[in-house]
């Protein structure tokens, strides 16, 4: 897109949208319809082009092609693109170019709905900006506020955080102000507004300048985003390179209809069949995540859980082990469904059908990223049929049945039932040692056996349900952590 086009009126944008919809059939090809577009041709400076090359971004993605010229010209932008399409680069590069020409503290605030996504965004800012001296600070809940205050005291150029913790610092950190803010970015904007973040976002909007640049990015749009557009965007440019709730064509999507009483057995069968793959399995609750990870580990699978009741160091430790290849199965709640870029993920299994159909789009978006192929399988019980049909209506696609022989699955039934009994005993024992109820273990060391550290002191051998088995070392105690607004 030329600079002339980027400075023009917004009326031509529906044409842009139509062209991109026409090109949807070539999503998995870099140059079916058009030449490769370089970052330099979009107006990005040579220093940042070199940083893009270092990150192995050889060419701009469609969302970057359409949004970067508008952002460089000071326009407010609303960007809608599929997961894994390069939205972080689309808002980070114009910010970094601004900072290269005019460095200033607290230039940009990026808000995200989850702590892990905030950390990932900060990492990308630091990788792209390391050669131009950009400083970045992460403000998220679950971490020590004092150390974050020290980071703020160093006057970073870019702040990335969750809304609750940002408000906590605005109210409690002496000398911290956003009155000089130039750019506000909301990543996964629809999720920010669907959670209880509206009050915090309103607080932030009241203390930042009206004369600023605002950008919203998401893979799914809701009416609440339109409300925010009316509240804080000025003459925005809307860039859509995907239909409202589309998934990429390189993703193979299947369903598997299973009886509810044998659901765990079918899930473990899939883990066994796909054991050579890197798998993310999504559940609905923290307790189910905890239990499934234990069952998988008792059956010999290399699984690790991540959910909202784990302390932040534990969550980050689990994520790092999965990213680093030490564990090939991540059992997670929707805390891991948004924005996380883990290129090695081959398969997504929806153990529980999401209550909100839009969460399905984000869950399956953890695989088949940046043109890669991927597989998504959703387990559907007799109680989930209505939720499943809502998903098919939302994505406007009929899913194919995943080929499985019932007899083959049920061969594992006895072993899976035994693993579930052991897992239940492990959970009861861990809860009893903590005084009843599942409480977060507050320590920074994930330990040799991360799952043992999370569930309790005892390590149970598969096939032996008796208590008093071989003990493992438990790291750390259970001091209560900060319970602020940070998500």
From TrEMBL:
The UniProt record lists the keyword RNA-binding: yes
The family this protein is said to belong to: Belongs to the DEAD box helicase family. DDX47/RRP3 subfamily.
Helicase ATP-binding domain residues: 68-239
Source superkingdom: Eukaryota
Annotated compartments: Nucleus
Any Pfam family hit: DEAD
Keywords tagged on the record: ATP-binding, Helicase, Hydrolase, Nucleotide-binding, Nucleus, RNA-binding
Source organism (scientific name): Bathycoccus prasinos
Comp. bias (Acidic residues): 22-33
Protein name, entry field: ATP-dependent RNA helicase DDX47
Keyword RNA-binding recorded: yes
């Amino acid at each position: 897109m030329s600079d002339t086009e980027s400075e023009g009126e917004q009326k031509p944008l529906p044409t842009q949208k139509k062209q991109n919809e026409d090109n949807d059939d070539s999503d998995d090809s870099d140059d079916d319809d058009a030449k490769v577009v370089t970052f330099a041709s979009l107006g990005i400076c040579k220093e940042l082009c070199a940083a893009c090359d270092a990150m192995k971004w050889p060419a701009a993605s469609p969302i970057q092609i359409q949004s970067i010229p508008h952002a460089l010209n000071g326009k407010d932008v609303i960007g809608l693109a599929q997961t894994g399409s390069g939205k972080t680069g689309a808002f980070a590069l114009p910010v970094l170019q601004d900072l290269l020409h005019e460095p200033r503290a607290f230039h940009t605030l990026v808000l995200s709905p989850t702590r892990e996504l905030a950390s990932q965004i900060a990492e990308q800012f630091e990788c792209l900006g390391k050669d131009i001296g950009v400083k970045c600070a992460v403000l998220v809940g679950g971490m020590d506020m004092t150390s974050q205050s020290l980071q703020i005291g160093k006057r970073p150029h870019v702040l990335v955080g969750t809304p609750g913790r940002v408000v906590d610092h605005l109210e409690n950190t002496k000398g911290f102000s956003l009155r000089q803010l130039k750019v506000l970015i909301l990543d996964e904007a629809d999720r920010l507004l669907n959670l209880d973040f509206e009050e915090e976002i309103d607080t932030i909007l009241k203390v930042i300048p009206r004369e600023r640049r605002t950008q919203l990015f998401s893979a799914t749009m809701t009416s609440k985003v339109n409300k925010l557009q009316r509240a804080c965007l000025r003459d925005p440019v809307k860039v859509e390179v995907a239909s409202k709730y589309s998934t990429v064509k390189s993703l193979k999507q299947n369903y598997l209809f299973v009886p509810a009483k044998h659901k765990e057995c079918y899930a473990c069968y899939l883990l066994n069949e796909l054991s050579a793959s890197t798998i993310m399995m999504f559940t609905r609750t923290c307790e189910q995540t905890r239990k499934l990870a234990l069952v998988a580990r008792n059956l010999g699978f290399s699984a690790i859980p991540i959910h909202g009741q784990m302390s932040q160091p534990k969550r980050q430790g689990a994520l790092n082990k999965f990213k680093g290849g030490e564990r090939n199965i991540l059992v997670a709640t929707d805390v891991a469904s948004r924005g996380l870029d883990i290129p090695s993920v081959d398969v997504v299994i929806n153990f529980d059908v999401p209550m909100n159909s839009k969460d399905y789009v984000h869950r399956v978006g953890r695989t088949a990223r940046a043109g890669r192929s991927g597989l998504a399988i959703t387990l559907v019980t007799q109680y989930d049929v209505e939720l499943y049909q809502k998903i098919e209506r939302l994505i406007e696609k009929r899913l194919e049945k995943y080929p499985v022989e019932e007899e083959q699955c049920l061969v594992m039934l006895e072993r899976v039932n035994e693993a579930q009994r052991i897992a239940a005993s492990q959970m009861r024992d861990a809860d009893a040692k903590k005084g009843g109820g599942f409480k977060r273990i507050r320590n920074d060391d994930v330990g040799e056996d991360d799952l043992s550290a999370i569930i309790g002191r005892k390590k149970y051998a598969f096939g032996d349900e008796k208590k008093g088995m071989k003990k493992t070392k438990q790291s750390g105690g259970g001091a209560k952590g900060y319970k602020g607004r940070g998500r």
